[in-house]
Amino acid sequence: LQKLASDVQSVNKVSGSLPDSSHSDTTVNLNVYGTLVKKGSDTTISCIITGLTETATVTWRTSTEPVISEKFTSVQGSHSGGTQTSTLAVDETLVNEDTAYTCRVTSGSLPDSSHSDTTVNLNVYGTFFNANSYL
């Protein structure tokens, strides 16, 4: 895995039962790992969140929408020792070109709180076809 970015994100928490209450800021670290894979290979990308006190809600998105298909398997992960790792397995049939996925993190206990997005890049390489070797 290649470590592509390390971001510090701030997640605002607002009480769901007291909508007029002030928010509190919680800083969590997102360590994002992208992958360089061969075209047509099954692959998994990950988003590691540190500095947590509880399990966060993690969803994966493409540039336009949530990933919902039998071609993806997302694992939200669970909080352990202040860290949570979420993964997204991508079916080989979708590994055809470089694609940016988004790891979206929100509070596990306050679902209406604002979210934090971080991009995870899936970088795809192909193999060269040498026509001269077939002549």
Question: Descriptors for this entry?
Answer:
about 140 residues; mainly beta; 8 strands; about 0% helix; about 50% strand; elongated; disordered N terminus
Contiguous low-pLDDT stretches (5 residues minimum) are 1-18
Biggest sheet descriptor:
8 strands, mixed
Apparent shape: elongated
Rounded mean pLDDT score: 77
Helix content: under 10%
SS-derived structural category: mainly beta
Could you tell me how far the N terminus lies from the C terminus, measured between alpha carbons in angstroms?
38 Å
Strand content: over 45%
Could you tell me the radius of gyration in angstroms? Answer: 18 Å
What oligomeric arrangement do these chains adopt? single chain
Number of strands: 8
Helix-strand topology string: EEEEEEEE
Count every helix, treating DSSP H or I runs of 4 or more residues as helices. 0
Notes on the structure:
This protein is mainly β and 135 residues long. Helices cover 0% and strands 52% of the residues. It has no helices and eight strands. The chain has strands spanning 2-13, 24-38, 43-50, 57-61, 72-75, 83-90, 99-106, 116-125. It is elongated.
Brief rundown of the structure:
It is built from no helices and eight strands. The chain has strands at residues 2-13, 24-38, 43-50, 57-61, 72-75, 83-90, 99-106, 116-125. A hairpin with a 7-residue loop joins strand 5 (72-75) and strand 6 (83-90).
List the helices and strands and how they pair.
Blueprint: E1 2-13, E2 24-38, E3 43-50, E4 57-61, E5 72-75, E6 83-90, E7 99-106, E8 116-125
Parallel strand pairs: 2-8
Antiparallel strand pairs: 1-2, 2-3, 3-6, 4-7, 5-6, 7-8
